[in-house]
From TrEMBL:
InterPro entries: ARM-like, ARM-type_fold, Pds5. GO terms for biological process: cell division; DNA repair; mitotic sister chromatid cohesion. Residues 1262-1283 have a biased composition (Polar residues). This is PDS5 cohesin associated factor A. The gene is PDS5A. It comes from the Eukaryota. Residues 1143-1294 are annotated as: Disordered. Keywords: Cell cycle, Cell division, Mitosis, Nucleus, Repeat.
Length: 1294
């Protein structure tokens, strides 16, 4: 590089140190360096007190600042000159020998440039560079520049140089001298310019920070040291950028949020004046800007040692407000922040809880998902960081509508359970805090989604009872888990094993089909199995395709079939199962693909059918645990269960597993332990043990003679003198496992049949149970001797006699313990009759006709067959329930269904409207279970239509769910079974309508067919069924329904064809049905090519000449059914309790506004929206003049208040024809309704002590005005609901 010629200094004017010759451009560089080193040495040795030397070498000092040296191309020369100049500033301080401002600027820029040499610590000259830095820092030489106008340029250059040269090879001294040099400039100057501030702050930006960590540390330390001085400058910078929006003031404007984060981490004092500006930015109209501020503040508030939230509460509250921001990314960022905040600042959990609650219901799936992640992550770090409320939010989300959210919630809870309950990582207290998780996770198995079920199975196998544990540890885990589960969780777990076992059965049947020759029938059967298997896998559509592919592979690969057969074999061990799954997966892995959905689907199947928990070894381990509990040497108390609970639940667990894994029980050791259980005093334990023998003991007789010889006398004893349940299981056990069952059963039958004594009913119950089951299991041997027992003892001696007087406490239901022994014996006698008939399966002796007449008489007489008034109300309820259930049980056998008359069917169906809540409840459950298994004929589905009149909302809702389930089961069955097309009349749900119409036409309440109130009840019952049937118009079903009802109008009632009034009622019900269908569907008037088939048992087809085109509903009545009565109805109140009237059951109900609005799916109207408007505006309250009183949870009416109704003629048990007229139990005509009584809250669980929820709702006196107070309460309640709804909405503030 060429430099301009320097003017030669006058040699005589410059004095050099001794031994130093003149330094000019005439000498070589080496010589110049040599001479300069001597000069440097001289200046180094001088101090400020050497006045003479200072004056002597003044000329040399001026000479060294000449352009010749400042622009010398040789770096060694420049370094030595810089060292000299630094010493000159030290020696001549505080006044520099240079007076020209320009010269001073050149000198300091020159020195600054030399400091770049600090970068290379391995350079031979590094020590001189260090000396230069040390000298400058110690003397604070740069402070001279404050006098210069453009000193900022020098400082900027200096700061840039120091930040660029600092590196990890520098020691602490170098850093300290740099800090001293820079901090003196900042602290002693008049202020820091923006450009100079930028040179410091730029090192904090992430990009620079990652490039030079040492420069970041240097800037960080410098800011800490100068915080008091530089804070004002920083505040000014952020004020201009954040508040005034002047982004041009600095190149760092776009990095303000990164800078704030770094500055806060360095020292919050640096941002004292900046934080209020952020509060302003949080309320910006720009969503992206709010998002940036939220991201920043999330880091500041969430930092480990941050005290910002406590120091700046307004900013914290403002930040929390962003949880309700209208901008989705802002809400999402807030939720993500909450995780760090909970972990680093547990004290802020209370503030966050309320906001996370709102966000757990956010409309955005991603936000709900992240709320769960936030809470679970904090909980996994320390369970104490999350309170019960936060865990409750995760619990709620296990039922989220989105699978991704549900999955995250379930997996999160499972991880917490495994960590704190299984591994006890935080002690018993933490385990107790989340003990509910195990139950909640298993409850999810009740959900309809197959994805939920599969995930519960996976969670159970990996987190609740990890399959990779040793067998003993695994079974101990299962043993105590089962003992601690609640009832519903136990049912769910049992259902899980049942479903897996069912799926194993389907796969086995599929493999069996592969062994048969190829044929069309075989292919059809195989397709059916594949469809059934696919229904048990996620994404049914894809599952079907993949199962077809898997079936094809099975057909081609015999080794694969062998592995699969081994996997589902009853003898497959858990270890073998793992090997089989691995082998099958390996065979299907080729060709390798990044994602193989086919393989994933097969894995789902294998996971469900593989026995990962239970095998022979596992059962042995469970039995050993049970033995320890019996002996009192187990860890029951440590595990939080009592020994009795452990024994009982352990036996229940083994009982369930005996259904799904019977082969695993076959060992002498297991059976010996079960024999010990049989001898225990606990009835439940002995019962479970007998059932396990029944399920698993098929090989006992041939292979375990010692067990057999011990077991037989015990079973005989239980069948004769055990509890009823033990007796039943003992009889079935003998029948199931012994070859000489006839001999064994005869040894029980004969002594029991001889010892029957009605005078000692306490000793009758078990013998009756045993005799009934024996006659059902071995009808050929015992049907005949049983006939005389039935005729002479059961009917005449037991059922037709009342030996004791019941408790007259007025209760409609009592606990099992309070039921009199005589009534319990009668109930078992009724069941014996049914079992005897079910065993015979024929009606050759006409025994079934007699039995049905007896049961009908029992229902007609309301349970008091002898009419001697000795039986209590609660005992009568038990007998009505037993009689109704018995008819329903007999109807499941085709030969008996044929002989059940319409009258008997109606009597049975009306039990669902019984005055006793428990009778209605239990009967409905029995009815549903039989229908859903397709055991009962379709006509019994019509009985659920009567539930529309039930006063308890829960019962109506349950009935509706039963209808939905039954209809879906029947539709699915028709789809899956091609042969079902031939039996559509008995399967197609639409064919329930004729039975329903006939049943409603014979409703005892339907006495005045032209009255609005009665027609309204009929309409409600019709709609209760039709609403579910008409959800979809599949295959033009609406038109089919219309045509079916029209066809019924062209028939006569087969029950009483010549009764004009009965036929008229039938036609009126048809017209109401047509009215409802027409108002619901516009497609019902289309043509229906299919001709409906009507049951001849109920409808008499007429000649073609017969034509019934009469309209039975007037226009006025149609309008009233559509919109209600013209005048407003009084306000409805709560459910009335029933009034007891001799010979009748009061059962009145009127739809309330709350029913109409909150339970529309259960009782919604098919008609126009006007109905809802009217029903919403009209409610009824209980009459304040009600004089009925409450006694022992049941209403009692004073004799003078109610006119007694004389009981009508009752049918005799042996009558050849039905009693006429049939008395209606459950609800009399409305004219017979007595004064209303105070009612319990609708929908509450019925207390065991009596039917407080029985009866029908009744409106208040139409002439009485609803009180203003009631209306106000109603309005305020609606207002409150509106307010709550508003609170749930997202805060749209910006």
């Amino acid at each position: 590089m060429e430099f301009p010629q320097q003017q030669k200094p006058a040699g005589e004017g410059i004095i050099y140190p001794p031994g130093v010759k003149e330094i000019t451009d005439k000498i070589s560089n080496d010589e110049m360096v040599k001479r300069l080193k001597m000069v440097v040495k001289t200046y180094m040795d001088m101090d400020q007190d050497s006045e003479e030397e200072k004056q002597q070498y003044l000329g040399l000092a001026l000479h060294l600042a000449s352009e010749f040296f400042l622009r010398n191309p040789n770096k060694d020369v420049r370094l030595l000159v810089a060292c000299c100049l630094a010493d000159i500033f030290r020696i001549y301080a505080p006044e520099a020998p240079y007076t020209s401002h320009d010269k001073l600027k050149d000198i300091f820029l020159f020195i600054t440039r030399q400091l770049k040499g600090l970068e290379d610590t391995k350079s031979p000259q590094f020590n001189r560079y260090f000396y230069l830095l040390e000298n400058l820092a110690w003397v604070k030489s740069y402070n001279i520049c404050f006098e210069l106008e453009d000193c900022n340029e020098i400082f900027i250059q200096l700061f840039k140089t120091l930040f660029s040269v600092i590196n990890n090879s520098h020691n602490h001294k170098v850093q300290m001298h740099m800090l001293d040099l820079m901090s003196s400039i900042i602290m002693e100057g008049d202020g820091v310019t923006q450009e100079l501030l930028d040179t410091i702050l730029i090192n904090l930006i992430p990009a620079h920070k990652n490039l030079n960590k040492q420069a970041y540390d240097l800037a960080k330390t410098l800011l800490k040291r100068t915080v008091q001085t530089i804070e004002t400058c920083i505040a000014n910078f952020f004020n201009q950028v954040l508040v005034m929006g002047k982004s041009s003031v600095s190149d760092l404007s776009e990095h303000v949020f990164d800078l704030i984060q770094e500055l806060f981490a360095i020292d919050p004092m640096l941002l004292t004046s900046v934080m209020p500006q952020l509060e302003f930015k949080l309320k910006s109209n720009d969503g992206e800007e709010r998002l940036a501020v939220v991201r920043l503040l999330a880091k500041l508030f969430g930092a480990k040692d941050s005290e910002l939230a406590s120091q700046n509460r307004p900013l914290w509250q403002c930040f929390l407000g962003r949880f309700n921001d209208i901008h989705v990314p802002v809400r999402l960022e807030c939720v993500k922040f909450a995780s760090h905040c909970l972990m680093n600042h547990p004290d802020l959990a209370k503030d966050l809880t309320e906001y996370l609650k709102v966000r757990s219901h956010d409309p955005e799936e991603a936000i709900r998902h992240d709320v769960i992640v936030t809470i679970i992550n904090a909980g996994k770090k320390d369970l104490n960081l999350v309170n019960d409320q936060l865990l409750g939010f995760v619990r709620e989300r296990t039922l989220d509508k989105r699978w991704r959210v549900r999955k995250e919630a379930m997996m999160g809870l499972a991880q917490l359970y495994k960590k704190y309950c299984l591994h006890h990582e935080a002690g018993k207290e933490s385990a107790q805090k989340i003990s509910w998780i195990k139950d909640k996770l298993l409850h999810i198995y009740y959900q309809n989604s197959i994805d939920d079920k599969l995930l519960v199975e996976k969670i159970f196998a990996q987190y609740m009872v990890p399959h990779n544990l040793d067998t003993e540890e695994k079974m101990k885990c299962l043993y105590y888990l089962y003992a601690c589960l609640d009832t519903n969780a136990v049912k769910a777990l049992n259902e899980m094993w049942k479903c897996q076992n069912m799926l194993r059965g389907l796969v086995k049947e599929l493999l069996d089909l592969h062994k048969l020759p190829v044929s069309e029938a075989n292919n059809t059967a195989m397709f059916g199995k594949l469809m059934s298997i696919a229904k048990n896998l996620p994404d049914a559509g894809k599952a079907q395709d993949f199962m077809k592919k898997f079936n094809q592979v099975l057909g081609e690969d015999e080794k694969l079939r062998v592995q699969l057969e081994m996997l589902i074999s009853p003898t497959c061990s858990c270890k073998q199962a793992e090997i089989c799954v691995r082998e099958i997966t390996r065979k299907l892995t080729f060709p390798k693909q990044p994602t193989n959905p086919f393989l994933e689907m097969v894995k789902f199947l294998l996971e469900r059918i593989a026995p990962v928990h239970i095998d022979s070894e596992a059962i042995s381990a469970l039995v050993k645990l049970l033995n320890k509990s019996i002996e009192g040497t187990a860890d029951d108390d440590e595990e939080g269960v009592t020994p009795d609970t452990a024994i009982r639940s352990g036996l229940e667990l083994l009982k369930v597993l005996s259904f799904t894994h019977p082969t695993a029980f076959h060992s002498a050791e297991t059976y010996e332990s079960l024999l010990q259980c049989l001898k225990m005093e606990d009835d439940k334990v002995a019962e479970a043990a007998i059932q396990i023998f029944r399920n698993t003991g098929q090989k006992i007789e041939t292979e375990l003679q010692q067990i057999r010889s011990t077991l037989i006398p015990i079973l005989h004893q239980k069948a004769k003198r055990g509890t009823p349940h033990q007796a039943k299981q003992a009889v079935h056990c003998i029948h199931a496992i012994f070859n000489n069952k006839e001999v064994q059963l005869a040894q029980i039958f004969e002594p029991l049949s001889r010892s029957l004594n009605a005078d000692v009913p306490e000793q009758l119950i078990t013998p009756l149970v045993s005799l009934g089951h024996i006659s059902m299991l071995a009808p050929d041997q015992f049907a005949s001797p049983m006939k005389s027992i039935v005729a002479n003892f059961i009917v005449k001696d037991l059922l037709m006699n009342d030996r004791s007087v019941g408790n007259k406490n007025g209760k409609l239901w009592t606990t099992d313990e309070e039921v009199s022994p005589e009534v319990l014996a009668k109930v078992q006698a009724i069941k014996l009759l049914v079992r005897w008939l079910l065993g015979m399966k024929n009606n050759q002796s006409k025994s079934a006709n007699s039995t049905l007449r007896l049961l009908s008489a029992m229902l007609v007489s309301e349970g008091d067959l002898t009419e001697q008034k000795k039986i209590s109300k609660s005992d009568m309820s038990r007998l009505r329930l037993a009689a109704g259930g018995a008819i329903m049980k007999l109807a499941q056998e085709p030969c008996y269904h044929e002989i059940i008359t319409p009258e008997q069917f109606q009597l049975c169906g009306l039990v669902i409207n019984d005055e006793c809540y428990q009778v209605r409840q239990i009967f409905a459950q029995k009815l549903h279970l039989a229908l859903v298994k397709l055991l009962l004929p379709l006509e019994y589905l019509a009985v659920f239509a009567l539930c529309a009149k039930d006063p308890v909302k829960e019962r109506r809702a349950h009935a509706r769910q039963c209808l939905l389930k039954n209809i879906s089961v029947r539709r699915e069955y028709i789809k899956q079974n091609p042969l079902a097309q031939e039996k559509l009349v008995s399967l197609l749900p639409e064919y329930v309508v004729p039975y329903m119409i006939h049943l409603l036409a014979h409703d005892p309440d339907f006495t005045k067919p032209h009255e609005y109130e009665q027609l309204k009840d009929i309409k409600e019952c019709l709609w209760f069924m039709l609403e579910v049937l008409m959800t979809k118009n599949e295959n033009n079903s609406h038109a089919f329904l219309r045509k079916m009802v029209e066809n019924i109008k062209q028939t006569k009632d087969a029950q009483c064809p010549d009764d004009a009034k009965a036929n008229e009622k039938l036609y009126i019900v048809c017209d109401v049905a047509l009215f409802v269908i027409a108002n619901k569907s516009t497609a019902c008037h289309l043509d229906c090519p299919k001709e409906p088939v009507l049951p001849s048992k109920f409808f008499l087809i007429q000649d073609k000449d017969f034509k019934n085109d009469k309209e039975y509903l007037t226009a006025e009545m149609r309008q009233m059914l559509l919109t209600g009565k013209p005048k407003p109805a009084p306000v409805l109140g709560a459910v009335n309790k029933p009034l007891t009237v001799p010979g009748r059951r009061i059962f009145t109900k009127t739809t309330t506004a709350s029913d109409t609005t909150s339970n529309t799916s259960t009782n919604s109207s098919p008609l126009s929206s006007t109905i809802n408007k009217n029903s919403n505006s009209s409610s009824t309250i209980e009459s304040s003049e009600s004089r009925a009183q409450e006694n022992n949870e049941n209403p009692v009416i004073k004799a003078e208040e109610v006119k007694k109704v004389e009981p009508s003629q009752k049918a005799a048990p042996d009558a050849g024809t039905e009693a006429s007229p049939v008395k209606r139990r459950g609800r009399p005509p409305k004219s017979a309704a007595a004064a209303p009584v105070a009612a319990d809250k609708e929908g509450g669980a019925a207390p065991v002590g009596g039917g407080t929820s029985r009866g029908r709702k009744r409106a208040a006196d139409p002439n009485s005005n609803p009180s203003a107070e009631s209306i106000n309460i109603k309005m305020s309640k609606q207002q409150q609901q509106n307010d709550e709804g508003t609170k749930r909405q997202i805060d749209l503030q910006r």
